[in-house]
Design brief:
mainly alpha; two-stranded antiparallel ribbon; 1% strand; nucleus; Zn(2)-C6 fungal-type domain-containing protein; Zn2Cys6_DnaBD
């Protein structure tokens, strides 16, 4: 019987220590065996290479062999088919995304560390599978040996965030929809698509930003049934991750916070947006976002600029001209970065210098300097928002001061602001100006939305300035002050307001005739559509317009504004604005705003509002709201017998009021006198006037937004 081929193979007399430890056949080649040479291991036959021998408890000598691959991938990396570092107790990918890392035992795997040892070493790196107690110190300021913030992208996940990672297919669909339909909105344009996708596929994108992008995309676009509710859950988890890591701010978490603020505003959760915006501004200050950093690459610098200007635009919309509410009231002196570059340079990493916030002055004998090619509509949008903020500050001061000096300088101040607006339009290159041809060329472009909104905002700036002279509006000057101004100035301002409102309605009509759908916008377009409707009905009902407005024509133009608002923005806040436009179309504009309805007026018939009835109500117009230049129009109705607990000072007081008697203390049922913990029981009222909204009549019963500190 012949011997088998296996027994006939030549055996070597010697085996190197490495092959012996690996339990593989060694060819015994002198110098370095074939196996060690192929794998790059240290061979005991090599006289110039040392081999580390480890003495175990069983007194058995073992060699520490470098691993070429991990023993196995964790469950999360295995499901996503992503590269796993194999580190314990949590791999690098799960640590970066705040996931609970789980290693399933394998048949041939070496035993893992004991649960007691793993839990002791992972107290600050990964949450357990079950929720830990509320008083767990896992997220303290990095006093443990290992910090999840060392990489600058990881966020510790609270107990509520210990859920499964979103499916990769869903994440990619959300990213694609975001960059197709949402990214063009100026407040979201700080993300660079190529950089974001590269970081996501590498498994190092912060989980909070992923969840925030899913949430805002699900709110503004259609990702499928049930995605709106799922998006809200994602946003709550993203905010929790940002709050857990607020002592270690990062750019990525600040980006998630900015998206969260806008999500709160879209969802009509104004108190949460108000507080989160303050936290985001602190993040920006800590990260020095309002200063240039020349040490960074161009893409990083440009992304930081856009993020800073997004914060500024949110702040200007929240403050609505009230400097004591604004966090960035003086952008020229607080924000020391240039305007964003155009989209092509940002997308393809083409460095090019831009301008500062204030445009350069005209050169002597040369006229207005042409706009450089490096500036795009993102820079123009930031600049027009800055102009509008200064207009609102001017009108707010004029309506609240009531001093003779301010009234005297008002015409000159208005002329300066109008000259800046005209200079803004004059510098636009021909391809940037508003025309039917330029509009149609952008029909299927993702930049259609910002092109439309930049020109709409230019019209809205004129409305904001001219509304100061529309007697009867809440933000207008009272009749005694208007009578002290030049009648020609008042008449020209009113006519200019009606002309720009008519032009804005025509812009909406041209937008609706395009072959594509109306681009997704934030609340800017519905808010401007409301103010346009308001101005049109004011000209109709007061009879002060030279445009020969008829009821049918005004209703037709207002219906166009309503359609544009309905097709551009979704969400509870947008629905409220649309409902208010419908109310004006149905019942007309109540003048003076804020006054009770006249018993002789038929509120269902706009034509029944006669000029004599308006004059009668104007005579009693004596109180203004603290937001005279508000953009939107949602302010909850307050009964005459009650008042907000904390309000801005009334602007209608012309003489020192008589001190009211001290009310009894509500702080305690034990004491009856003064108490250091006394407060108004209803909490701090976050009305929409802090967001440029002045809803006087709200048909859907929206209550006052009360801040109780329980939910952001």
């Amino acid at each position: 019987m012949s011997a088998s081929p296996r027994t006939q193979q030549k055996r070597t007399a010697h085996t190197c220590i490495t092959c012996r430890a690996r339990k593989v056949r060694c060819d015994g080649r002198k110098g370095t065996c074939t196996n060690c040479e192929r794998l790059g291991f240290g061979c005991s036959y090599d006289e110039h290479t040392g081999v580390e021998v480890v003495q175990t408890d069983a007194a058995v000598s073992r060699i520490a062999i470098p691993r070429r691959r991990v023993r196995r991938a964790c469950q999360n990396c295995h499901e996503k088919k992503a590269r796993c570092s194999g580190s314990t107790p949590s791999c690098d990918r799960c640590t970066a995304q705040g996931l609970h890392c789980v290693y399933l035992p394998g048949k041939r795997s070496l035993p893992l560390a004991s649960p007691a040892t793993a839990s002791a070493t992972s107290a600050t790196s990964a949450p357990p599978a079950t929720a830990h107690p509320p008083d767990s110190p896992s997220y303290d300021d990095g006093h443990s040996g290992r910090s999840a913030f060392a990489s600058g992208t990881a966020s510790p996940a609270p107990a509520s965030a210990a859920r499964a990672e979103p499916e990769e297919d869903l994440v990619l669909r959300a990213f694609d929809a975001f960059f197709r339909h949402v990214h063009h909105i100026p407040k979201f344009s700080f993300l660079h698509r190529a950089s974001l996708m590269e970081r996501y596929h590498a498994g190092s994108l912060d989980r909070s930003l992923v969840l925030a992008l899913i949430a805002i995309t699900a709110l503004l676009t259609d990702l499928g049934p049930g995605m709106a509710e799922y998006g809200s859950q994602c946003m709550e988890e993203a905010v929790s991750l940002c709050l857990a890591g607020m002592e270690k701010p990062s750019i990525v978490r600040l980006q998630a916070l900015v998206i969260a603020v806008e999500h709160r505003i879209f969802s009509r959760r104004f108190s949460g947006a108000f507080m989160l915006h303050a936290l985001a501004s602190r993040f920006a200050t800590a990260l020095r976002l309002n200063y240039e950093n020349p040490e960074l690459c161009f893409l990083a610098r440009e992304s930081r600029r856009r993020l800073m200007w997004s914060l500024y635009m949110i702040d200007s919309s929240i403050s609505a001209g009230q400097r004591d509410v604004a966090l960035w009231p003086d952008a020229e002196r607080q924000i020391h970065v240039h305007l964003p570059c155009n989209e092509r340079n940002f997308e393809f990493d083409l460095p090019e210098a831009t301008e500062s916030l204030r445009p350069p002055p005209p050169e002597p004998g040369m006229g207005t300097a042409p706009m450089p090619d490096a500036l795009g509509f993102m820079a123009l949008h930031v600049r027009i928002q800055w102009m509008r903020a200064r207009i609102l500050q001017c009108t707010s001061q004029a309506a609240s001061s009531w001093s003779q000096q301010d009234l005297t300088t008002l015409p000159l101040r208005c002329a300066e602001l109008l000259a800046e607006l005209e200079g803004f339009e004059e510098r636009l290159p021909p391809s940037f100006k508003w025309s039917e041809g330029n509009l149609r060329l952008r029909t299927y472009s993702p930049r259609l939305g910002i092109f439309v909104m930049t020109h709409v905002w230019w019209r809205q700036c004129h409305l904001d300035l001219y509304r100061l002279f529309l007697e009867g509006l809440r933000e207008a000057l009272p009749r005694p002050m208007l009578q002290q101004l030049d009648p020609n100035l008042v008449a020209r301002s009113r006519q200019g307001c009606y002309n720009h409102a008519r032009a804005m309605a025509d812009m909406f009509a041209q937008l609706l005739t395009l072959g594509s759908s109306v681009p997704v916008t934030d609340l800017d377009l519905p808010g401007c559509a409301y103010q346009c409707t308001r101005a049109l009905y004011h000209g109709l009902q007061t009879g002060t317009s030279d445009l020969a407005f008829t009821l049918e024509r005004v209703q037709e133009l207002s219906a166009v504004c309503l359609r544009a608002a309905q097709q551009s923005t979704t969400g509870p806040a947008a629905a409220s604005i649309q409902a208010d436009i419908e109310r004006i179309i149905t019942h007309g504009l109540k003048l003076p705003e804020g006054a009770p309805d006249s018993p002789t007026r038929n509120s269902s018939d706009p034509a029944s509002v006669t000029k004599s009835a308006i004059d009668t109500r104007l005579a009693g117009h004596a109180q203004l709201t603290p937001d005279p230049a508000a953009l939107y129009t949602f302010q909850p109705s307050v009964p005459a017998t009650s008042a907000p607990s904390i309000a801005l000072p009334s602007l209608a007081v012309t003489e020192p009021p008589i001190p009211a008697p001290v009310a009894p203390s509500h702080a305690s049922g034990v004491t009856t006198g003064s108490n250091a913990f006394e407060e108004v029981l209803s909490g701090f009222t976050f009305g929409p006037e802090l967001y440029g909204m002045d809803w006087s009549t709200f048909p859907t019963g929206w209550p006052n937004q009360q801040f109780t500190g329980s939910n952001m």
